[in-house]
Design a protein that fits this description.
Elements lengths: L1 H25 L1 H20 L6 H26 L7 H17 L4 H25 L4 H20 L4 E2 L8 H4 L1 E2 L2 E2 H19 L1 H18 L4 H27 L1 E2 L7 H11 L11 H20 L5 H29 L1
Protein backbone atom coordinates (compact mmCIF):
# COMPACT_ATOMS: atom_id res chain seq x y z
CA UNK A 1 0.00 0.00 0.00
CA UNK A 2 2.86 2.33 0.77
CA UNK A 3 4.50 1.68 -2.59
CA UNK A 4 1.22 2.19 -4.37
CA UNK A 5 0.55 5.41 -2.49
CA UNK A 6 4.03 6.68 -3.26
CA UNK A 7 3.61 5.89 -6.96
CA UNK A 8 0.27 7.66 -7.08
CA UNK A 9 1.74 10.72 -5.36
CA UNK A 10 4.60 10.82 -7.84
CA UNK A 11 2.19 10.65 -10.79
CA UNK A 12 0.14 13.50 -9.32
CA UNK A 13 3.27 15.61 -8.83
CA UNK A 14 4.44 14.80 -12.36
CA UNK A 15 1.05 15.72 -13.82
CA UNK A 16 0.96 19.01 -11.94
CA UNK A 17 4.52 19.79 -13.04
CA UNK A 18 3.63 19.05 -16.67
CA UNK A 19 0.59 21.32 -16.44
CA UNK A 20 2.66 24.09 -14.87
CA UNK A 21 5.31 23.78 -17.60
CA UNK A 22 2.65 23.84 -20.31
CA UNK A 23 1.10 26.96 -18.75
CA UNK A 24 4.48 28.67 -18.64
CA UNK A 25 5.12 27.68 -22.26
CA UNK A 26 1.83 29.19 -23.43
CA UNK A 27 2.49 32.45 -21.62
CA UNK A 28 6.27 32.60 -21.99
CA UNK A 29 6.32 35.77 -24.09
CA UNK A 30 3.86 37.57 -21.82
CA UNK A 31 6.03 36.71 -18.83
CA UNK A 32 9.11 37.87 -20.71
CA UNK A 33 7.64 41.25 -21.65
CA UNK A 34 6.48 41.73 -18.06
CA UNK A 35 10.04 41.18 -16.87
CA UNK A 36 11.36 43.62 -19.49
CA UNK A 37 8.80 46.23 -18.45
CA UNK A 38 9.75 45.96 -14.78
CA UNK A 39 13.44 46.24 -15.70
CA UNK A 40 12.77 49.36 -17.76
CA UNK A 41 10.75 50.94 -14.97
CA UNK A 42 13.59 50.37 -12.52
CA UNK A 43 16.22 51.62 -14.98
CA UNK A 44 14.42 54.87 -15.84
CA UNK A 45 13.39 55.46 -12.23
CA UNK A 46 17.06 55.58 -11.24
CA UNK A 47 18.45 57.26 -14.37
CA UNK A 48 15.80 59.95 -14.99
CA UNK A 49 14.91 62.15 -12.00
CA UNK A 50 11.39 63.03 -13.16
CA UNK A 51 10.37 59.59 -14.40
CA UNK A 52 8.93 58.14 -11.19
CA UNK A 53 6.96 61.26 -10.25
CA UNK A 54 3.17 61.02 -10.08
CA UNK A 55 2.74 63.75 -12.66
CA UNK A 56 4.96 62.03 -15.20
CA UNK A 57 3.40 58.60 -14.70
CA UNK A 58 -0.10 60.03 -15.16
CA UNK A 59 1.11 61.87 -18.26
CA UNK A 60 2.61 58.60 -19.51
CA UNK A 61 -0.75 56.86 -19.13
CA UNK A 62 -2.49 59.66 -21.02
CA UNK A 63 0.05 59.49 -23.84
CA UNK A 64 -0.23 55.73 -24.37
CA UNK A 65 -4.05 55.68 -24.13
CA UNK A 66 -4.64 55.99 -27.92
CA UNK A 67 -2.08 53.25 -28.59
CA UNK A 68 -3.60 50.91 -26.01
CA UNK A 69 -7.15 51.45 -27.29
CA UNK A 70 -6.25 50.65 -30.89
CA UNK A 71 -3.88 47.85 -29.88
CA UNK A 72 -6.74 46.18 -28.01
CA UNK A 73 -8.79 46.10 -31.21
CA UNK A 74 -5.74 45.20 -33.30
CA UNK A 75 -5.25 42.12 -31.13
CA UNK A 76 -8.51 40.75 -32.51
CA UNK A 77 -7.48 41.51 -36.09
CA UNK A 78 -4.03 39.95 -35.84
CA UNK A 79 -5.51 36.93 -34.01
CA UNK A 80 -7.46 36.18 -37.20
CA UNK A 81 -4.15 36.32 -39.15
CA UNK A 82 -5.13 39.72 -40.54
CA UNK A 83 -3.61 43.17 -40.16
CA UNK A 84 -4.79 46.78 -40.38
CA UNK A 85 -2.26 49.30 -41.65
CA UNK A 86 -4.83 52.08 -42.01
CA UNK A 87 -5.27 52.93 -38.31
CA UNK A 88 -2.75 55.79 -38.33
CA UNK A 89 -4.42 57.47 -41.30
CA UNK A 90 -7.84 56.93 -39.71
CA UNK A 91 -6.54 58.70 -36.60
CA UNK A 92 -5.46 61.66 -38.72
CA UNK A 93 -8.71 61.84 -40.69
CA UNK A 94 -10.88 61.47 -37.58
CA UNK A 95 -9.11 64.24 -35.68
CA UNK A 96 -9.02 66.54 -38.70
CA UNK A 97 -12.69 66.13 -39.55
CA UNK A 98 -13.68 66.54 -35.90
CA UNK A 99 -11.92 69.91 -35.76
CA UNK A 100 -13.40 70.99 -39.10
CA UNK A 101 -17.03 70.14 -38.30
CA UNK A 102 -16.74 71.78 -34.88
CA UNK A 103 -15.50 74.93 -36.57
CA UNK A 104 -18.57 74.80 -38.79
CA UNK A 105 -20.81 74.88 -35.74
CA UNK A 106 -21.71 71.22 -35.32
CA UNK A 107 -22.84 70.08 -31.90
CA UNK A 108 -19.94 68.28 -30.17
CA UNK A 109 -22.21 65.31 -29.49
CA UNK A 110 -23.29 65.01 -33.11
CA UNK A 111 -19.70 65.50 -34.27
CA UNK A 112 -18.46 62.74 -31.96
CA UNK A 113 -21.12 60.28 -33.14
CA UNK A 114 -20.36 61.12 -36.78
CA UNK A 115 -16.61 60.55 -36.32
CA UNK A 116 -17.18 57.19 -34.64
CA UNK A 117 -19.55 56.22 -37.45
CA UNK A 118 -16.87 57.22 -39.95
CA UNK A 119 -14.38 54.94 -38.19
CA UNK A 120 -16.87 52.07 -38.33
CA UNK A 121 -17.40 52.71 -42.06
CA UNK A 122 -13.66 52.63 -42.75
CA UNK A 123 -13.39 49.38 -40.83
CA UNK A 124 -16.39 47.98 -42.71
CA UNK A 125 -14.71 48.71 -46.05
CA UNK A 126 -11.50 47.04 -44.89
CA UNK A 127 -13.40 44.03 -43.61
CA UNK A 128 -15.65 43.70 -46.66
CA UNK A 129 -12.76 43.61 -49.11
CA UNK A 130 -10.68 41.33 -46.87
CA UNK A 131 -13.33 38.88 -45.67
CA UNK A 132 -15.92 38.87 -48.44
CA UNK A 133 -13.74 39.54 -51.49
CA UNK A 134 -10.70 37.58 -50.24
CA UNK A 135 -8.24 40.35 -50.99
CA UNK A 136 -5.19 40.15 -48.69
CA UNK A 137 -5.69 42.48 -45.68
CA UNK A 138 -2.19 43.88 -46.15
CA UNK A 139 -3.11 45.17 -49.62
CA UNK A 140 -6.57 46.42 -48.63
CA UNK A 141 -5.46 48.33 -45.56
CA UNK A 142 -2.35 49.66 -47.28
CA UNK A 143 -4.60 51.15 -49.94
CA UNK A 144 -6.90 52.58 -47.25
CA UNK A 145 -3.87 54.06 -45.51
CA UNK A 146 -3.12 56.10 -48.62
CA UNK A 147 -6.76 57.03 -49.26
CA UNK A 148 -7.45 58.17 -45.69
CA UNK A 149 -4.22 60.15 -45.37
CA UNK A 150 -4.84 61.82 -48.72
CA UNK A 151 -8.39 62.65 -47.70
CA UNK A 152 -7.14 64.19 -44.45
CA UNK A 153 -4.61 66.29 -46.35
CA UNK A 154 -7.27 67.46 -48.82
CA UNK A 155 -9.72 68.33 -46.05
CA UNK A 156 -7.22 70.37 -44.07
CA UNK A 157 -5.05 71.54 -47.00
CA UNK A 158 -2.09 70.64 -44.82
CA UNK A 159 -2.92 73.03 -41.98
CA UNK A 160 -3.86 72.27 -38.38
CA UNK A 161 -7.44 73.16 -37.46
CA UNK A 162 -7.92 74.50 -33.91
CA UNK A 163 -10.66 73.26 -31.58
CA UNK A 164 -12.40 75.68 -29.22
CA UNK A 165 -11.18 74.90 -25.71
CA UNK A 166 -14.55 75.90 -24.22
CA UNK A 167 -16.36 72.95 -25.82
CA UNK A 168 -17.08 70.02 -23.50
CA UNK A 169 -15.60 67.54 -25.97
CA UNK A 170 -12.10 68.87 -25.20
CA UNK A 171 -12.41 67.27 -21.76
CA UNK A 172 -12.23 63.86 -23.41
CA UNK A 173 -8.56 64.50 -24.11
CA UNK A 174 -7.68 66.94 -21.34
CA UNK A 175 -10.05 66.18 -18.47
CA UNK A 176 -9.36 64.30 -15.26
CA UNK A 177 -11.49 62.23 -12.92
CA UNK A 178 -10.17 62.01 -9.36
CA UNK A 179 -6.84 63.24 -10.71
CA UNK A 180 -6.57 60.49 -13.33
CA UNK A 181 -6.62 61.57 -17.02
CA UNK A 182 -9.83 60.67 -18.82
CA UNK A 183 -7.93 59.05 -21.74
CA UNK A 184 -6.19 56.70 -19.30
CA UNK A 185 -9.51 55.69 -17.72
CA UNK A 186 -11.04 55.12 -21.15
CA UNK A 187 -8.05 53.02 -22.24
CA UNK A 188 -8.27 50.82 -19.13
CA UNK A 189 -12.00 50.26 -19.68
CA UNK A 190 -11.47 49.37 -23.36
CA UNK A 191 -8.62 46.98 -22.51
CA UNK A 192 -10.69 45.28 -19.80
CA UNK A 193 -13.67 44.86 -22.13
CA UNK A 194 -11.34 43.55 -24.85
CA UNK A 195 -9.87 40.99 -22.45
CA UNK A 196 -13.32 39.83 -21.35
CA UNK A 197 -14.57 39.51 -24.94
CA UNK A 198 -11.46 37.65 -26.10
CA UNK A 199 -11.30 35.21 -23.19
CA UNK A 200 -14.90 34.86 -21.97
CA UNK A 201 -17.19 35.02 -25.00
CA UNK A 202 -17.97 32.84 -28.03
CA UNK A 203 -16.88 35.71 -30.30
CA UNK A 204 -13.40 35.60 -28.73
CA UNK A 205 -13.21 31.86 -29.40
CA UNK A 206 -14.34 32.41 -32.97
CA UNK A 207 -11.60 35.02 -33.48
CA UNK A 208 -8.90 32.62 -32.28
CA UNK A 209 -10.47 29.77 -34.25
CA UNK A 210 -10.53 31.85 -37.43
CA UNK A 211 -6.82 32.49 -37.08
CA UNK A 212 -5.86 28.91 -36.26
CA UNK A 213 -8.16 26.98 -38.61
CA UNK A 214 -10.78 29.06 -40.37
CA UNK A 215 -12.09 26.22 -42.52
CA UNK A 216 -12.82 24.00 -39.53
CA UNK A 217 -14.58 26.88 -37.82
CA UNK A 218 -16.69 27.51 -40.91
CA UNK A 219 -17.75 23.86 -41.03
CA UNK A 220 -19.12 24.13 -37.50
CA UNK A 221 -21.64 26.66 -38.79
CA UNK A 222 -19.90 29.89 -37.75
CA UNK A 223 -20.12 32.76 -40.23
CA UNK A 224 -16.38 33.32 -40.49
CA UNK A 225 -16.76 36.18 -42.96
CA UNK A 226 -18.91 38.07 -40.49
CA UNK A 227 -16.34 37.49 -37.74
CA UNK A 228 -13.59 38.80 -40.01
CA UNK A 229 -15.66 41.84 -40.95
CA UNK A 230 -16.44 42.61 -37.32
CA UNK A 231 -12.83 42.76 -36.15
CA UNK A 232 -12.01 45.37 -38.79
CA UNK A 233 -15.01 47.45 -37.77
CA UNK A 234 -13.65 47.30 -34.22
CA UNK A 235 -10.25 48.66 -35.28
CA UNK A 236 -11.91 51.38 -37.34
CA UNK A 237 -13.95 52.58 -34.37
CA UNK A 238 -10.94 52.29 -32.06
CA UNK A 239 -8.81 54.38 -34.44
CA UNK A 240 -11.56 57.00 -34.58
CA UNK A 241 -11.63 57.13 -30.78
CA UNK A 242 -7.84 57.52 -30.77
CA UNK A 243 -8.14 60.36 -33.28
CA UNK A 244 -10.66 62.12 -31.05
CA UNK A 245 -8.42 61.69 -27.99
CA UNK A 246 -5.36 63.09 -29.75
CA UNK A 247 -7.22 66.00 -31.34
CA UNK A 248 -8.96 67.03 -28.12
CA UNK A 249 -5.77 66.66 -26.09
CA UNK A 250 -3.91 68.97 -28.48
CA UNK A 251 -6.99 71.18 -29.14
CA UNK A 252 -6.42 70.83 -32.87
CA UNK A 253 -6.87 68.40 -35.72
CA UNK A 254 -3.98 67.72 -38.07
CA UNK A 255 -3.53 65.58 -41.17
CA UNK A 256 -0.04 64.76 -39.88
CA UNK A 257 -1.35 63.10 -36.73
CA UNK A 258 -0.88 59.37 -36.39
CA UNK A 259 2.24 59.21 -38.53
CA UNK A 260 3.84 55.85 -37.75
CA UNK A 261 0.98 55.06 -35.37
CA UNK A 262 0.24 51.72 -37.06
CA UNK A 263 3.85 50.65 -36.43
CA UNK A 264 3.52 51.43 -32.74
CA UNK A 265 0.21 49.58 -32.42
CA UNK A 266 1.36 46.46 -34.26
CA UNK A 267 4.59 46.43 -32.26
CA UNK A 268 2.63 46.53 -28.99
CA UNK A 269 0.43 43.61 -30.07
CA UNK A 270 3.22 41.40 -31.40
CA UNK A 271 5.53 42.27 -28.52
CA UNK A 272 2.84 41.03 -26.15
CA UNK A 273 2.76 37.56 -27.67
CA UNK A 274 -0.07 37.66 -30.22
CA UNK A 275 0.98 35.63 -33.24
CA UNK A 276 1.19 37.42 -36.58
CA UNK A 277 0.09 34.14 -38.14
CA UNK A 278 -3.12 34.07 -36.12
CA UNK A 279 -4.56 31.58 -33.67
CA UNK A 280 -2.77 32.84 -30.57
CA UNK A 281 -3.44 36.03 -28.65
CA UNK A 282 -2.72 37.64 -25.30
CA UNK A 283 -4.67 40.74 -24.33
CA UNK A 284 -2.58 41.06 -21.17
CA UNK A 285 0.51 40.88 -23.35
CA UNK A 286 -0.87 43.66 -25.56
CA UNK A 287 -1.37 45.87 -22.51
CA UNK A 288 2.17 45.17 -21.32
CA UNK A 289 3.51 45.77 -24.85
CA UNK A 290 1.82 49.18 -25.07
CA UNK A 291 3.12 50.12 -21.63
CA UNK A 292 6.64 49.02 -22.58
CA UNK A 293 6.67 51.20 -25.70
CA UNK A 294 5.29 54.14 -23.73
CA UNK A 295 7.89 53.75 -21.00
CA UNK A 296 10.71 53.60 -23.55
CA UNK A 297 9.52 56.72 -25.39
CA UNK A 298 8.92 58.64 -22.18
CA UNK A 299 12.17 57.55 -20.57
CA UNK A 300 14.30 58.40 -23.59
CA UNK A 301 12.81 61.90 -23.75
CA UNK A 302 13.54 62.46 -20.04
CA UNK A 303 17.12 61.31 -20.65
CA UNK A 304 17.30 63.99 -23.38
CA UNK A 305 17.71 61.45 -26.15
CA UNK A 306 16.58 62.80 -29.53
CA UNK A 307 12.93 61.86 -30.25
CA UNK A 308 14.04 60.82 -33.72
CA UNK A 309 15.62 57.76 -32.14
CA UNK A 310 12.27 56.61 -30.71
CA UNK A 311 11.05 55.29 -34.08
CA UNK A 312 14.39 53.59 -34.63
CA UNK A 313 14.02 51.85 -31.28
CA UNK A 314 10.41 50.91 -32.02
CA UNK A 315 11.36 49.46 -35.39
CA UNK A 316 14.13 47.43 -33.82
CA UNK A 317 11.78 46.17 -31.11
CA UNK A 318 9.22 45.15 -33.75
CA UNK A 319 11.84 43.17 -35.66
CA UNK A 320 13.01 41.41 -32.50
CA UNK A 321 9.41 40.77 -31.44
CA UNK A 322 8.57 39.16 -34.79
CA UNK A 323 11.71 37.04 -34.59
CA UNK A 324 10.85 35.93 -31.06
CA UNK A 325 7.21 35.40 -32.02
CA UNK A 326 7.95 33.13 -34.97
CA UNK A 327 11.14 31.43 -33.78
CA UNK A 328 12.14 31.56 -30.15
CA UNK A 329 8.81 31.45 -28.29
CA UNK A 330 7.22 29.08 -30.79
CA UNK A 331 9.98 26.55 -30.14
CA UNK A 332 9.84 27.16 -26.40
CA UNK A 333 6.11 26.58 -26.36
CA UNK A 334 6.51 23.38 -28.42
CA UNK A 335 9.08 22.06 -25.96
CA UNK A 336 6.83 22.82 -23.00
CA UNK A 337 3.90 21.07 -24.60
Amino acid sequence: MTATGTGTSQRVVTTRSARANAHIGRHAQTIAIAVVLVALLIFFAFSADQFATTGNLLNLLRQIAPTLIVATAMTFVISTSGIDLSVGSTVALSGSLLAIVLQHGWSPTVALIAILALGALIGFVNGWFSSYQNIPPFIVTLAMLSIMRGTALRATEGYSTPINGDLWIVQIGQGRIAGVPVPAILAVVVALVGWLVLTRTPFGRYVIGLGSNGESLRRTGVNTRKVGLTVYVLTGVAAAVAGVLIATRLSSGSSNAGSGFELEVITAVVLGGTSLFGGRASMLGTILGALTLGVIANGLVLLHVSPFYVQIVQGGILLLAIFANSKVWAKFGAIRK
